[in-house]
Amino acid sequence: MIRLFFDSNVLFTAAHNPEGKASLVIELSAPGGWEVVTSAYCLAEARLNLERKHPAALRRLSEILRTVRLVPDVTGERCTLFLPEKDRPVFASAQRCKATHFLTGDQRHFGPYMNKPKDTMGIVVQAVGDFLSDIAK
User: Fold this and answer.
1) β 35-39/101-103 pair status
2) C-alpha–C-alpha distance, residues 73 and 81, integer Å
3) SS (H, E, C) the chain
4) Is the pLDDT score of 30 beyond 90?
5) Which of 56, 79, 73, 77 is CA-nearest to residue 8?
6) Which end of the chain is more exposed for a tag (fewer CB within 10 A), N or C?
């Protein structure tokens, strides 16, 4: 089973842009093609950024959470990747819930790990567009 872990920026984008690729991934998960998960940590960050920048999108975020399953937060010490402190617990949560994919828009911090599952304990780190391109093949 494909289990997609959404980073906070992907949750933010899905809530802010209902016609975008992140929303499409959630929509396509409904028929059972894959499971979408995130952590409370990511949800809190997405919610905070939406409150600051696009408060009208908070309603959409609540709707999204009917489909997206929350997984437990994990401390950053469990993360073996060289990441900033704030990103370590996020990736550790993805590892613990056995995510097959980690979807993020954070090229700055996760870019070196994109599409290198041998370096990321088998988890495919991708941008949403890359994931959609891969499943279309």
Assistant:
1) unpaired
2) 17
3) CCEEEECHHHHHHHHHCCCCHHHHHHHHHCCCCCEEEEEHHHHHHHHHHHHHHCHHHHHHHHHHCCCCEEECCCCHHHCCCCCCCCCHHHHHHHHHCCCCEEECCCHHHHHHHECCCCCCCCCEEECHHHHHHHHHC
4) no
5) 73
6) C
Cut 0.85: pTM above it: yes
Alpha-carbon distance of 2 to 41, in angstroms, equals: 22
Residue 124 has phi, psi (to 5 degrees) of -85, 115
Instruction: Give me 97's structure tokens.
Output: 């819930």
* Distance from C-alpha of 112 to C-alpha of 108, rounded to nearest angstrom: 8
Q: What pLDDT score was predicted for residue 31?
A: 78
List the one residue out of 89, 131, 91, 87 whose CA is nearest residue 108. 87
Residues 6+ apart with CB under 8 A from 61: 11, 14, 15, 46, 47, 50
pLDDT in tens, 52-77: 999 999 999 999 999 999 999 988 67
> Judging by DSSP bridges, how do beta strands 3-6 and 124-126 pair with one another?
unpaired
